[in-house]
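Inputs:
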Amino acid sequence: MVAKRIIPCLDVKDGRTVKGINFVSLRDVGDAVELGRRYSDEGADELVYLDISATFEGRRTFCSLVEKIALAINIPFTVGGGISSVDDAARLLDAGADKISVNTAAIKNPQLISDIASKYGSQFVVIAIDARQVDGRWMATTHGGKYPTDKELFSWAREAQERGAGELLFTSMDHDGTKAGYPIETYRRLNELLSIPVIASGGAGSIRDIADVLADGCADAALAASIFHLGEIRIPDLKRELKKLNIPVRI
Amino acid sequence: MIAIVDYGVGNIRSVVNALNRAGVVEPVLTADRELLRKADKVVLPGVGDASCAMAALRDCGLAEFIPSLRQPVLGICVGLQLMCRRSEEGDVKCMGIFDTDVVRFQPADGLKIPHMGWNSICDLKTGLFKGLKEDSYVYYVHSFYPQLCGDTIATTTHGVAFSGALAKGNFYGTQFHPEKSGEVGAVIIKNFLGL
């Protein structure tokens, strides 16, 4: 049986990881390679690196960082942030990324999903959707929740799958950062609607929350950032608890 | 000398990186028969569509040649599929080293396709898995699978039980990606290099 995946997400700016990171034993908490290796050693199943640099120089630094990550890490990793063309995706593939995630650029130009998937395969393309509820409907947003769009979550997710996305990373902007848990019912509906794996992101405050979205929400993976970085939940503890609850995990 | 068959299919950087991590400083990327013949070990990678990959292998004149190799050869993912009899993907005849066919996962209730992520391998045979426990986890990404047969040396179940790895004589193949399978994958690569 395929194991449910646990995925730490690292934000990278100008080649270095940012956000409060609380690993006392790390010499350099900004070192994206060392931090990734640390998570890998702790049992992370995959890593996501998000480039939040806003400059051309920062993006170039990110690409050379991806090369270093690919050399050092022996588990799959996804990179995202600012990918808006097939060329952007190609550069990251060449640097050694296993998957890329697209978000805002795909909303502006859905053909981007088709173009990248037909050239490099569906397994390479993750569609990331940040959505919030507006009058009872889940609506996609862009730029990390900043701007509303007219794309409804379920139909957009379906379209992305049909265009060749190989995975969906769905974040509820209503739950992100609240630590109050995930919108379980929404994940369950996404799982019923789609044949591609669904990754849950945003909202976890406890091991129980993650267990709920993997079991009741039927999500294939759970992604989180600060709860791992701040040491609030340690991956070995999380996986042990999930296993006790009969959720299949790789230990 | 460790050679990686370079037949223009997909990205072989992750295989190069994994060999680097295993201490192989400069694996040789080549489609040259003389070099491949002389190599101590040969790795046949592959991603994407099996029929395209098979066509690329034929274009390089290697489809008849690879089965004649005598040193240990490791096919990875589509590389392994090309070593089977045929693949349903593009209905293509392959090299026929392993006594099995490659078929598509059938959609079933709750079964995700592609089969993507970590899954366990059991009934482990041969030195390729030396030092590894039954039900070790490895990383898979694929929609087509090699059926079970007499050459099966590892079994994984995703809806159906299939060949996670195959071996016959000097030929080995893994449907999973040892280069992305963490420490378990690193052991498998080390074992292959030690064959």
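The first strand of chain B starts at residue 2 and ends at 5. Flag for discussion at group meeting.
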